[in-house]
Amino acid sequence: MADVRRAVRDALAGLPEGATVLVGLSGGADSLALAAATAFEAPKAGLRAGSVTVDHGLQGGSEEIAARAVAQAEALGLDAIAVTVDVGGAGGPEAAARDARYGVLKDAAADAGAVAVLVGHTLDDQAETVLLGLARGAGAGSLQGMAWSSELAPGVALMRPLLGLRRETTRAACAALQLAPWDDPHNSDHRFARVRVRETVLPMLEAELGPGIAEALARTAAQLREDAEAFDEMIDETIEDIVEHAEAGISVSVAALAANPAALRHRIIRLVVASEFHQSLTRAQTLEVARLVTDWSGQGPIDLPGCRARRVGGRLEFTAPVAPTG
Fold it and tell me: Its Gene Ontology molecular function terms (predicted)?
């Protein structure tokens, strides 16, 4: 209980006195322990605190589960609400539920004038995220896992105070406070890859390689995030000098790209496409564009998500595709 409260206290430090913070409360052990700690720590920091429970409607009795979470939050002294959403199917059920949930949290923060929303991801969640990214062959961006703090909306921080704590700590905190968490049956459904990682893969790694695997994966995420922040600073310093606006797009100096290490060159290419056309490139697509810089033999334009890349003299141009005329 003290560990959870200390983590929340550190997260709330520095927030303006009188501000409002919200907790994303599912009713599970992680979010329930977080809500209890926030209810305890927020008034001491001069903050108002509330909770938001999202009813995804994906299983029977979800309304009762949401109502129970609201009642527990109110008993803790939080201003609590529950919101029912319709979950679509884009990207699969997990991704669709996540998108719907964060949409509700964003709207609730706007309605409450909140400066931060706290969610209950733990070190175990971080380790699972990194291992899943590794298994899928994801890049360093995915292997960084979840950030301790990021932007949910302009002026609203999304905080994960419990990223340094194990799941067993949140369960112990609930037991110490005599709180009864809800166990989501989806968390033991082996149709989901994350559940298989949690219940089969990580225990097997611990048994075969020794304890501390989850902590090691979380440390890896933190180190990769530090590396990414350093790369981002280098890109910010570099990109203003090598990028120019072009007709219907943007262009980058080929000589400047060629002079940079491959890792930085690839990041610049991905950043240009993401910032100008709001699309993400796969590694294969990034490498194909990079060949226009490092292995130029007169090849033609490359069609990419939302744009087209081509080499024009000493510039690498990214332009929006031309719509066909009737």
Answer: ATP binding; tRNA(Ile)-lysidine synthase activity
